[in-house]
Design brief:
FAD/NAD(P)-binding domain; 7-stranded mixed beta sheet; 4-stranded antiparallel beta sheet; 20% strand
Length: 492
């Protein structure tokens, strides 16, 4: 089925066309305002596994558990699945290959998603996308074999996968607080359009990104990098079309020898045009170049250039101010493209992300905290659940507001231990995605979507196996988990 036919059959033709205190929101425990609320659980809201958060990690957790026989409920605060890849318009998928660009090492459900997208014209397969091209914003290090995709088609692919697996998906449902029995989580209170409702579960996976479930259940958390006293800046992604791609490429490619990084600051795509706009007083963004990625359709591009520092994604007022600032920066960038960039004079703003792109917020710290040095050294642990080669990417870590730390790994790949999915003190709970137990720099490598999806697949698989045996995830035999992950085509 081609892309147009797929969109027609799914009714999507039209759709396709301020800093807060760093540790202020990490006190732990539930919300006392809800302690006396009378909340009843619907029969349909009783399940084996409750997955909170429908981003890439949450979807893969839910699908993997449901395919192993668990009754799964997946709840999300928005109106679609996919998180950053759909609501946030973050793209492309970062690399799923080893550091040499020779072997695809993140497979399993991630590869299934990619294959489904490619089959309906919703993605370009990473095997054919090489570094230092328009599909990688002409970046080389760590950007070989990325996957351009269409976010509207990705929404429907996720819908199909969840429906096929028999997952109950509940949208527009905000996690309010955990249902606890001692130190064990037994479900969640949700704020839905119907009011406060309870979802009872034998096990829960926190795939919220911000570690909201674990935090409110009493798991220890830190915010950002507590040693440095900072959190990675956030970005509002946006998409443009009606671009003369041939002219844009012709503008950039003669300047490729000038691409460089100076004291943590990148001077890459269109840095010469940024300097021109800056000299004219028409650039006040904390960037010296523009990350602009060609998408599936030739005239469509994804822009990752806005930068908002000090965003606390767990603070409503702070996040609200960041959303407004992101939109202001998008308007400045559209003016920049129209005035300064050949091929973009008639560019149209297709849309901005409906949610801010959050790189970092809470990190749950379980009994084991993954240190960044293990990734740099290419350690593959005994309880490995995935392989990755994504570089250490910590925005804002050096070089002032425009800078960051970008560090390729020393080996071809590294592994991630099962232990990062375990929150420690809270029973019946697993972690998936950005909030897993890792230090700030390590999280800077595995926060991107392909490893997040692999983390989700491992969490869902572990949950289903633990439920079948009636044991805690920490007591699960790793050999059984490994065997099941390999059956699920994970690369270990």
């Amino acid at each position: 089925m081609d892309r147009r036919k797929f969109l027609e059959t799914t009714g999507l033709v039209a759709a396709a066309g301020a800093a807060a205190p760093l540790l202020g929101s990490c006190k732990g425990g539930g919300d006392p305002l809800l302690a006396g609320a009378k909340v009843a659980a619907k029969e349909s809201y009783k399940c084996d596994l409750l997955v909170v958060g429908g981003g890439p990690a949450g979807v893969c957790a839910a699908v993997s558990a449901a395919r192993l026989g668990s009754k799964v409920m997946l709840v999300d605060s928005g109106n679609c699945l996919g998180g950053m890849g759909t609501k946030g318009l973050v793209g492309p998928f970062m690399t799923c290959y080893d550091a040499k660009g020779e072997e695809m090492i993140i497979r399993g459900l991630f590869e299934e998603v990619v294959d489904r997208l490619v089959a309906v014209g919703g993605a370009l397969h990473p095997s054919g996308i090489r570094q230092k091209t328009e599909f990688t914003a002409w970046i080389s290090e760590g950007h070989d074999h990325v996957t351009p995709f269409d976010p509207e088609i990705l929404k429907v692919v996720y819908d199909h996968m969840c429906k096929e697996a028999g997952i109950k998906v509940l949208y527009n449902s905000v996690f309010a607080q955990p249902i606890m029995k001692g130190d064990a989580i037994c479900g969640a209170v949700l704020l839905t359009p119907s009011g406060l409702e309870a979802a009872e579960a034998k096990m829960v996976i926190d795939a919220t990104g911000d570690g909201t479930v674990a935090f409110r259940a009493g798991a220890p958390c830190v915010f950002g990098d507590p040693e440095a006293g900072r959190v990675q800046p956030s970005s509002l992604f946006f998409r443009m079309n009606n671009i003369d791609t041939d002219r844009l490429i012709a503008e950039v490619e003669p300047h490729l020898p000038e691409f460089r990084r100076v004291n943590g600051v990148s001077y890459r795509c269109l840095h010469w045009r940024v300097a021109e706009a800056e000299a004219n007083g028409e650039w006040d963004l904390a960037r010296k170049s523009v990350n602009i990625w060609r998408s599936v359709e030739k005239d469509q591009w994804v822009v990752n250039c806005t930068r908002i520092h000090g965003v606390d994604a767990t603070d409503a007022e702070n996040l609200s101010a960041a959303e407004e600032e992101g939109r202001r920066q998008v308007q400045e960038l559209m003016h920049f493209f129209h005035k300064y960039v050949p091929g973009c004079e008639k560019a149209t703003l297709m849309g901005t992300g409906s949610v801010m792109g959050i790189r970092e917020s809470r990190h749950v710290h379980g009994d084991f905290v993954l240190p960044v040095q293990d990734l740099i050294d290419g350690i593959i642990p005994e309880d490995n659940i995935l392989l990755s080669a994504n570089s250490i990417d910590v925005h804002g870590a050096m070089g002032g507001p425009a800078g960051g730390l970008y560090m390729p790994i020393k080996k071809d790949k590294y592994g991630i231990p099962y232990r990062v999915l375990l929150p420690g003190v809270v029973k019946n709970l697993l972690l998936a995605g950005r909030c897993v137990s890792a230090d700030s720099a390590a999280a800077g490598a595995i926060r991107v979507m392909p490893p997040a999806m692999a983390l989700g697949q491992a969490a869902g698989t572990a949950a289903a196996l633990s439920l079948a045996k009636g044991i805690q995830p920490k007591d699960l035999d790793y050999g059984e988990l490994r065997a099941e992950l390999i059956k699920g085509k994970a690369c270990l």
